[in-house]
Amino acid sequence: EAKRLGKGRYIFYNDDMKSTIVERAEIEQKLRTALENNEFELYFQPQFDILKNEIWGVEALIRWKSPTLGTVSPDKFIKIAEDSQKIVAIGKWVFEESCRFAKKLYMMGYYKHTVAVNISVIQLMQEDFNDFILDTIKKYDLSCKTIEIEITESVLMKSIDDVYEKLSILKDIGIRIALDDFGTGYSSLSYLKALPITTLKIDKSFIRDMENDLMTENLTSSIISLAHQLNLEVVAEGVENLGQFERIKKYKGNRIQGYYFAKPMPEEDIIPFIDKISGRI
Ligand code: C2E
Ligand code: MG
Ligand code: MG
Ligand code: MG
């Protein structure tokens, strides 16, 4: 099928594109009521502190079970939620749930565990973003140090001034700020120096390719030492095996996150997991 776009210009749709458009529309429509119907759940994936040999904390990862669409991956629906602004309400729910979980850990006697929360650029662009974050942390009576906000590089490139200022304020009061998926965007090194961040999360594509590609391994070790010179902590995400873990350890990464250590789990599983690792059971 060809569609006329104007004089002599045609665009051709194939079945793949058509199903993508239909799927998008369906997801967008079902997203409208997903929050009020309680279709979201947070999973938590532990991060392991290599030097201290203990759990550092967890990353909260959203899961959506739609009664009609089934399980939809965040890689699929977050973008759509951003385009429809739904991400603002969903993101608030994610942050509040993360704080509730952080409080639960604290009440169990895990005083030092941190909860890392993914934040979308659309959320950061809301005028009340900082107020919301601070109010929610206060509501649960948490220390700012128990929260790490994860943002992607593209976020900072897009809307630098406003976002930069908001993040600086949050960082100054002790909230940790991680640059997620590092290495997949376009940030220059001088730019990295100026960012209000505490943590660099190396993208899992580096970790995956490191073992079979010496250039990627060298690049990864260079990123880690560069980050340390900028006073940043380094997390390796997507660590799936011993070989990758040993390399990150050798190059002095601070934390690992990945299937090698643990998969993301629902709350009822993560609590016993932490208890077990901490030697409580
Ligand atoms: P991300 O923040 O980079 O999260 C890491 C992703 O890697 C997660 O995918 C996680 O399940 C996966 N992962 C963890 N360990 C391994 C491993 O060893 N190997 C491999 N191959 N993958 C691993 P997930 O949960 O599907 O989330 C995908 C992305 O969706 C996230 O990437 C993040 O960008 C976004 N996302 C997830 N939850 C939220 C949320 O609550 N809010 C926002 N704004 N975005 C979210
Ligand atoms: Mg993340
Ligand atoms: Mg990531
Ligand atoms: Mg990602």
TrEMBL record:
Keywords: Coiled coil, Membrane, Transmembrane, Transmembrane helix. Residues 24-278 form the EAL domain. This is Diguanylate cyclase (GGDEF)-like protein. The lineage of its organism: Bacteria, Bacillati, Bacillota, Clostridia, Peptostreptococcales.
